[in-house]
């Protein structure tokens, strides 16, 4: 049975997913020549082929039956990559993560509106004309995290959870992507209010995600100042003045200059001598940040030369790549749901279910887990099992 769909819809779905004609043909179980015929209107796909293409692009089958392709929409306002890398064409995996994040943000906004719990706009803004320390000071005050609390966190995951919880308390959604290599994306943000969005990459180290979180939070505060680096073809993130500004604000927020200068390790380091591995590691542990943040602090405070900084960065980059190559592990469905979507989003879904606004099937679909896992998710997020015993 042939599916009577418009060729421009097939073309739009394929391109929007970032698939080449050959990729689309492989996923639909046919040849590139046949897909070309679908798209020029000389042949229609079978229902089965269309269903395979819909599954491959993570789209509902109904999207092929729209009257016309949706108008171009780009919600991204910022996109963070590893230093030294340039933007290229978005991979299908990245396109999917961006689309899913935006759809989840809209869902969260709809649920919050229905519950009457839409958070107010962020109470502060930022401008690139401001001093870095002033912006960082206001961010710390807004998030309510003291140096003493920061130093009490037992490990990098506690630090990530602490900063993430504080950002979410301000009405910002913080998701985590799992499908994209960290070399392509460390994080991105959508700055529209209410409920702006930040997405981190689970393939990045926990301390790396903390820095990305604060970097993206600065973009959110810039509002109109955030840009989409995907448009800067061939331009490295460190060559972009807004990226540099957000990096400096993130570093100053995580490790304020005055607190860093008062650290026993910094005060005890002999002037004009090289920094040792143990000293860098001790500072990173003291402030619950990455060694990269420590190196940035030393560089901006002129306690480390630029050539030494580059040498350290090369060494850390090689170490990081080796660690990524050997990375293994599997997260349970419960951990994946709560960690990936964030407690704010999961709580909104559960509250909507408690008030009979959505069904248990909706809960399962929105959280991406089977109902048999809901009791443990409910206990982790709400503190007890209320509806899923």
Short structural summary:
This protein has helices spanning 7-16, 21-28, 32-40, 47-56, 92-115, 132-143, 147-152, 156-169, 206-222, 241-254, 257-261, 264-268, 277-287, 291-300, 306-325, 333-354, 360-367, 374-382; strands at 78-80, 173-177, 187-190, 197-201. The protein is mainly alpha-helical and 389 residues long.
SSE order and pairing:
Layout: H1 7-16, H2 21-28, H3 32-40, H4 47-56, E1 78-80, H5 92-115, H6 132-143, H7 147-152, H8 156-169, E2 173-177, E3 187-190, E4 197-201, H9 206-222, H10 241-254, H11 257-261, H12 264-268, H13 277-287, H14 291-300, H15 306-325, H16 333-354, H17 360-367, H18 374-382
Parallel strand pairs: 2-4
Antiparallel strand pairs: 1-3, 3-4
Helix pairs in contact: 2-3, 2-4, 5-16, 6-10, 8-9, 9-10, 10-14, 13-14, 14-15, 16-17, 16-18
The residue ranges in which pLDDT falls below 50 over 5 or more consecutive positions are 225-234
Indicate the overall shape. globular
Q: Tell me the structural class.
A: mainly alpha
Radius of gyration: 23 Å
Order of helices and strands: HHHHEHHHHEEEHHHHHHHHHH
Structure description:
There is one protein chain. This protein is mainly alpha-helical. Strand 3 and strand 4 form a beta hairpin. It folds into four domains: 7-65, Orthogonal Bundle (434 Repressor (Amino-terminal Domain)); 78-253, no CATH class; 255-316; 333-382. Helix 2 packs across helix 3 (32-40), helix 6 packs across helix 10 and helix 16 crosses helix 18. Strands 1-3-4-2 form a four-stranded mixed sheet, with helices on both faces. It is built from 18 helices and four strands. The chain starts with 6 loop residues before the first helix and ends in a 7-residue tail after the last helix. The longest helix has 24 residues, at 92-115.
């Amino acid at each position: 049975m042939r599916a009577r769909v418009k060729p421009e819809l097939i073309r739009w779905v394929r391109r929007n997913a970032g698939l080449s004609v050959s990729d689309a043909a492989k996923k639909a179980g046919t040849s590139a020549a046949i897909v070309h015929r679908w798209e020029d209107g000389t042949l229609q796909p079978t229902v089965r082929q269309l269903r395979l293409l819909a599954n491959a692009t993570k789209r509902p089958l109904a999207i092929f039956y729209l009257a016309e392709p949706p108008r171009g929409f780009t919600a991204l306002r910022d996109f963070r990559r590893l230093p030294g890398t340039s933007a290229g064409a978005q991979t299908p995996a990245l396109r999917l993560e961006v689309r899913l994040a935006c759809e989840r943000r809209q869902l969260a906004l709809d649920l919050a509106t229905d519950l009457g719990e839409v958070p107010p706009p962020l109470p502060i803004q930022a401008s690139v004309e401001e001093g870095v320390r002033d912006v960082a000071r206001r961010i710390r005050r807004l998030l309510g995290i003291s140096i003493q609390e920061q130093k009490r966190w037992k490990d990098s995951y506690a630090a990530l959870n602490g900063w993430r919880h504080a950002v979410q308390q301000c009405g910002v959604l913080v998701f985590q992507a799992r499908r994209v290599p960290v070399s392509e994306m460390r994080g991105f943000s959508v700055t529209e209010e209410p409920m702006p969005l930040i997405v981190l990459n689970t393939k990045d180290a926990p301390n790396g995600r903390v820095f990305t979180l604060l970097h993206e939070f600065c973009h959110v505060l810039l509002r109109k100042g955030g840009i989409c680096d995907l448009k800067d073809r061939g331009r490295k993130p460190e060559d972009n003045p807004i990226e540099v500004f957000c990096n400096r604000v993130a570093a100053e927020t995580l490790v304020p200059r005055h607190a860093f200068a008062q650290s026993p390790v910094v005060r005890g380091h002999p002037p004009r001598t090289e920094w040792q591995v143990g000293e860098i590691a001790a500072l990173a542990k003291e402030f619950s940040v990455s060694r990269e943040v420590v190196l940035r602090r030393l560089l901006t405070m002129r306690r480390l030369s630029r050539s030494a900084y580059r040498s350290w960065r090369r060494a850390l980059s090689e170490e990081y790549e080796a660690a990524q190559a050997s990375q293994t592990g599997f997260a349970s469905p419960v951990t994946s749901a709560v960690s990936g979507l964030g407690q704010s989003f999961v709580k909104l879904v559960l509250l909507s279910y408690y008030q009979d606004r959505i069904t248990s099937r909706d809960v399962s679909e929105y959280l991406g887990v089977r109902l048999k896992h809901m009791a443990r998710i409910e206990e982790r997020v709400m503190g007890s099992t209320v509806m899923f015993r």
